[in-house]
Amino acid sequence: MIEFLTFGKYTYFVWSSYLITTFVLVALVFSAFSLRKRIINQLILKFKIENEH
């Protein structure tokens, strides 16, 4: 019974760390995409302004 409990704890730990890692990766990718979009938009605006003058 004790071995089973330890295994259950270990599985829970693995699952929680796996979920946290996945969540962090998704958040990083999402922020990277939004940041890239913002940078590209700023560059396009800057380029347009420079071309107009």
Keywords:
53 residues, mainly alpha, transmembrane helix
Distance between the termini: 78 Å
Counted by DSSP, the helix tally is: 1
Strand content: under 5%
Largest β sheet strand count, sense and barrel closure: none
**What Rg, in angstroms, do the CA atoms define?**
23 Å
Indicate the mean pLDDT: 88
Structural class: mainly alpha
Q: Work out the number of β strands.
A: 0
Residue ranges: pLDDT <50 for 5 or more in a row?
none
Query: Which geometry do the CA atoms define?
Result: rod-shaped
One letter per element, helices H and strands E, the order comes to H
Give the helix level as a range of percent: over 70%
Can you walk me through this structure?
It is found in: Cell inner membrane. Keywords: Cell inner membrane, Cell membrane, Cytochrome c-type biogenesis, Membrane, Transmembrane, Transmembrane helix, Transport. One of its GO terms (biological process) is cytochrome complex assembly. InterPro entries: Haem_export_protD_CcmD. This is Heme exporter protein D. The structure is a single chain. It contains 1 helix and no strands. It is about 95% helix and about 0% strand. It is mainly α and about 55 residues long. The protein has a domain at about 25-53. The model has no long low-confidence stretch (mean pLDDT about 90).
